[in-house]
Amino acid sequence: MNIELFVQKASNLFVSNRLLRFVVVVLAVAFVFNSIMVYRAVRYQKVVLIPPHMTGTVEFVQGKPTENYVIEIARRVVSLAATYSPPTARKQFDEVLFYYAPEAYPDASRSWYSLASRVEESQVSSVFYIEKYTLKDNSIEVFGDLKQFAGTAVIENASRTYRIEYQIRDGRFEITSFKEKSLTEEGNKKQ
């Protein structure tokens, strides 16, 4: 048996093993790097939507909507809820109810349909002029001037603030609460 041939084959095997280990390490590092980059790409992806009744684009970043989307929806909801006339009130309130979360819908439908009946009976019209939006965590406050008319006579002309509490579920804006913010609430916050 030729010992030189054996030593050469053994050293070739050791070199081959080192080369294979190096290739495995490089592949593992590449796999880890690729996984990190895919995670970052998924985390920072943007979904661009153009919902019906909206004029601009809407972006969700990391599952959260941009301020423009929330303001646009709030503008639409407040316009439907606070600007109405007897012939349009019920239809507009139906559209407002479309935005409600399922768990808040029963109470909201009772109150909105009750208001629609009162508006139709008393022939009251209302106009709300939006002046300012204040975004907070899962709520938005809309400040403006409210004018109510009975026929052609003005029965109320006052500043109002509406507070909309919402949630985003599966990319859908859902109202959990729509209330008029009282002056005592505003006074308590200032003190």
Outline the structure in words.
The chain is 49% helix and 32% strand. It has two domains: 3-44; 64-190, Nuclear Transport Factor 2, Chain: A (Roll). The radius of gyration is 31 Å and the shape is rod-shaped. A hairpin with an 8-residue loop joins strand 1 and strand 2. Helix 3 runs antiparallel to helix 4. It has helices at residues 3-43, 67-82, 89-98, 105-122, 183-190, and strands at 46-49, 58-61, 64-65, 124-136, 139-150, 153-169, 172-180. It is of the alpha+beta class. The chain is built from five helices and seven strands; from the N terminus they run H-E-E-E-H-H-H-E-E-E-E-H.
CATH homologous superfamily of the largest domain?
VirB8 protein
Report mean pLDDT, rounded to a whole number. Answer: 84
Main structural class: alpha+beta
Please count the helical segments.
Answer: 5
Q: Which word captures the global form?
A: rod-shaped
Order of helices and strands: HEEEHHHEEEEH
- Helix share, percent: 40-55%
CATH topology of the largest domain: Nuclear Transport Factor 2, Chain: A
Strand content: 25-35%
Overall radius of gyration:
31 Å
In the CATH classification, which architecture of the largest domain applies?
Roll
Largest sheet: 4 strands, antiparallel
> What's the number of domains?
2
Strand order of the largest sheet: 4-5-6-7
Q: CATH class of the largest domain, please?
A: Alpha Beta
Distance between the termini: 100 Å
Count of DSSP E strands?
A: 7
Low-confidence stretches: 184-191
